[in-house]
Amino acid sequence: MLYFIDIFGVVAFAISGVLVAQSKRMDPFGILIIAFVTATGGGMLRDVLIGDTPVIWMKNPVYVYLIFGATVFGILFRSKIDYLRTSLFLFDTIGIGLYTVIGVEKGLTAGLAPPICISLGIMSACFGGVIRDILCNEIPVIFSREIYATACFVGASCYLILLKLHVPTNINFVISVLVVIIIRLVAVRFKIALPSVYKD
Amino acid sequence: MLYFIDIFGVVAFAISGVLVAQSKRMDPFGILIIAFVTATGGGMLRDVLIGDTPVIWMKNPVYVYLIFGATVFGILFRSKIDYLRTSLFLFDTIGIGLYTVIGVEKGLTAGLAPPICISLGIMSACFGGVIRDILCNEIPVIFSREIYATACFVGASCYLILLKLHVPTNINFVISVLVVIIIRLVAVRFKIALPSVYKD
Amino acid sequence: MLYFIDIFGVVAFAISGVLVAQSKRMDPFGILIIAFVTATGGGMLRDVLIGDTPVIWMKNPVYVYLIFGATVFGILFRSKIDYLRTSLFLFDTIGIGLYTVIGVEKGLTAGLAPPICISLGIMSACFGGVIRDILCNEIPVIFSREIYATACFVGASCYLILLKLHVPTNINFVISVLVVIIIRLVAVRFKIALPSVYKD
Fold first, then answer.
1. pLDDT tens digits, residue range A127-151?
2. What is the DSSP letter of C143?
3. Fewest Cβ atoms nearer than 10 Å: which of A100, A143, A153, A169?
4. Distance between CA B139 and CA C22 in Å, rounded?
5. Helices (H), B1-79
């Protein structure tokens, strides 16, 4: 089950990368690279900073195949992909929730302090998109749409608190991922954003 | 003493990140990230390239708290922060001097050759700002205001030369940091820059 | 022989960085950094992701001297360098071929799967230019001129196939590097590009 969700997450992230790369009119190679960093960039950065190398996609070629497949799919069905936007958004949101908790877990395994684990959760979920935007020469979109990151922050904190309360890991995992997903869905549905810090 | 200067350096770098992020009208999350990379980016890159992981801020959560505090401060006192510019510039300059020598020391500890140690000193002091500018979609400001990096270069070389001359480490440290600080202050005060390489 | 080609490759990459940095009117320090990342960025990224640190140029200061020399040369002979464009293009192409096979070899040594080794070959040859373009605030040029990367892909695959066929390493090395070089030269000479994925 988890394995399938992980796969969905990677594919959803990859396709979101394909869409951005195509809007920049990149060639097939550029599209593939953008898909790749969108899907793996956050986890890759996390692993390098912790020192857990070779990074995950090098240990398991399945990721390379998946992202390659998603890129070919995205290129072939470019015009049809608009119909899939809702499903993609859902996969993407599930992926974010999942990546957040996986990031926190990695931090705990490495024996790091709670605030660091939360940072790693947010990094895993958000920095694929940050690297994608840098490669596309844009200011990362996440720096001005904060609910995305805030959802990860709340989910990551929730996981650590429930862990402290000795909630079984499986249940904790599901609850925390759901927290991320629900916050993001509700925020997008009702257009909720943090108050601006700019008066003018 | 050193500890306090280190803290001042981190805070000064973080606040300089807050100011840049606000000029790009980022949201609170974006501002926090920019503050974070400005303060830790140079040392983080250095540690990753040497292979000294997990990187420093993961081992000591104090950095996370400091940067979080500096970000909140910078957002709350946005309009007042202009009065602090001179103090900030001073902290920033002290931070640069300190980071330079710390970077050189790290290289020596890892058994690297002198020119590599100098590179690591410059990297530690300057690349937080470089990553900040990349995330803000600007050409790094340091690439066209070279005295900043030149000061680090001279300070780092000074440290290695005095080490060779068997000057005690404490005294060497203070002298080399002061060299960086004085070069930068004098250069800014008298608007000194290297001659341009462009005729037209 | 190999050593000389490696040196030519580094110098050619560094000078291509100098040319780009000068077109952005950077100061001498900025030019040096761009030359540095262009020549070492791909290999540096590869080594960090595999976990083979300290990265190569830290272990051998010759790279630092070479790049420094190439930068000084590029700045001094800025106006004359146009006459060298053909030679530079040739060195650059040889460098790409060489870096590709070295990257594949590194992956094999680390015990990674074939598709990962191919990715590492492409990364070694192409990502110096990608990081250069990011620092210069451009969308990486390689994302819209794909023959460059395609040549690396074919050369890397060729190396793995010939290895499987028990072709002696020396011969395999020469053949695979030549494959990259010839594909690139032919593609540039006859203006060959992959078909566009955009209809409009």
1. 998 999 888 888 887 777 667 888 9
2. G
3. A169
4. 13
5. 2-23, 28-50, 56-59, 62-76
Task: Kindly tell me if the per-residue pLDDT of C110 is higher than 60.
Answer: yes
pTM over 0.90: no
Enter the tokens of residue C23: 């077109």
Cross-chain CB nearest to A54 (options C110, C130, C197): C110
C25 CB within 8 Å of a chain B CB: yes
Classified as helix, coil or strand, B52 is coil
Chains near B (3 or more Cβ pairs under 8 Å):
A, C
A135: nearest CB among C48, C134, C144: C134
Look-up of token digits 């900025």: C30
CB atoms within 10 A of CB B84: 16
Q: Given the cut 0.90, state whether the ipTM is greater than it.
A: no
pLDDT tens column, B46-85 = 999 999 888 888 988 889 999 999 999 988 887 777 677 7
Return the pLDDT at C1.
58
Residue B195 touches chain C, beta carbons under 8 Å: no
Under 8 Å CB-to-CB from B71, ≥6 apart: which residues?
A: B14, B18, B28, B31, B32, B35
Of B139, B150, B198, the CB nearest to C29: B150
Length of chain A measured in residues: 200
